[in-house]
């Protein structure tokens, strides 16, 4: 029998709620990162009628070693997808929606225009909903980033994922500096958009490296920082070195706030879009 | 009415799960929303909730057993 997981990795699963959300997604031909990435919070989020939509298909053009999203030949862009996302947001009665993507290095704009159309469609159908986009680095292309920024979502998130020294093993097709520059560029172009990023722990990073990452991210003007436990999707993925205790996560949250982030979510089951609305609802700090 | 409780497919690529613990025993009355059992799979321990009221009349596996997805693990009988 396999080794037992720590007690803090216990989640609720309600089949009815999961099936209800899954049926809606299938009807509208939509993907969620919740399902594609085997998110441990799927049961809780679907029960609360929240989900993170993954646009531009289910096949990613990159093959990051921590991620469960399938690497392969991408599908043609679905022109009906933006309105289908908006319809799902309406049907799920969401007040805050997170839209993410598979990385599309094959598209000239990295998928930026599909993000813009999706934001626009949601605005037209659900004008009171706040919108968060979780984007790839779009190869650092400023024109692509300009397209996303012009759509003016409330939050633009781009995950730095891990500390710089682990990039060759964890994100070999990405660049720590480029990810920082994406966050910096968004803030410089439109300071009214909240920027957000996050890292996973348990990959072998040291405390000093985590604190250095916080400092590096803060130089970009980033507002929101998320920290969660890496969980290895399969033996083919990069190895998980250790479980980090909830107490250490709490310590990092305090340090992050002291350093200057306006909001920090830090606990083992935090994912970049987990309870994302809570950051916006904490009106005192944002 | 009888409801067969099966091992849920907690992720797209899940084939089996470990029935880690029973939260209810054979003969117990259960209410919709009560945790029935825990499954270790898809990175976490999931507490699987009952979706009907009734009595847990059968349990087919013991704690620690590895169970294929969609295999019956228990039976709930309700009056409806």
CATH class value of chain A: Alpha Beta
Mean pLDDT of chain A: 90
Main CATH class of chain B: Mainly Beta
Helix-and-strand structural type of chain B = mainly beta
The whole-angstrom Rg of chain B is 12 Å
Low-confidence stretches of chain B: none
Shape of chain A: globular
Percent of residues in helices of chain A: 25-40%
Q: In CATH terms, what is the fold-level topology of chain B?
A: OB fold (Dihydrolipoamide Acetyltransferase, E2P)
Number of helices of chain B: 0
Percentage of residues in strands of chain B: over 45%
β-sheet strand percentage of chain A:
5-15%
The CATH homologous superfamily of chain A is named Aldolase class I
Contiguous uncertain segments of 5+ residues of chain A: none
Ends distance of chain B: 6 Å
- Return the CATH topology of chain A: TIM Barrel
General shape of chain B = globular
Strand line-up of the largest beta sheet of chain A: 2-3-4-5-6-7-8-9
Structure report:
- The complex is a heterodimer of chains A (286) and B (80).
- With 286 residues, chain A is α/β, with parallel strands linked by helices.
- Chain A has a single domain (7-279), classed as TIM Barrel, CATH 3.20.20.70.
- Chain A has helices spanning 15-27, 33-36, 42-47, 81-91, 112-125, 142-151, 167-170, 176-189, 207-218, 246-259, 276-281, and strands spanning 10-13, 31-32, 52-55, 96-101, 130-134, 155-157, 194-201, 224-229, 263-266.
- In chain A, strands 2-3-4-5-6-7-8-9 form an 8-stranded mixed beta sheet.
- In chain A, α6 links the parallel β5 and β6.
- Chain A is globular.
- The mean pLDDT of chain A is 90.
- The model of chain B has no long low-confidence stretch (mean pLDDT 90).
- In chain B, the strands form 2 sheets. Chain B has a 4-stranded antiparallel beta sheet with strand order 1-8-6-3, with no helix packed on it.
- Chain B has strands at residues 2-6, 16-22, 29-30, 35-41, 44-49, 54-59, 66-68, 72-77.
- Chain B has no helices and 8 strands.
- Chain B is mostly beta strands.
- Chain A binds chain B through residues 1-2, 4-5, 9-16, 18, 35-36, 38, 40, 42-43, 231-234, 269, and chain B through 8, 10-13, 18, 20, 33, 35, 38-40, 42-49, 51, 64, 66.
- β1 (10-13) of chain A pairs parallel with β5 of chain B, so a sheet runs across the interface.
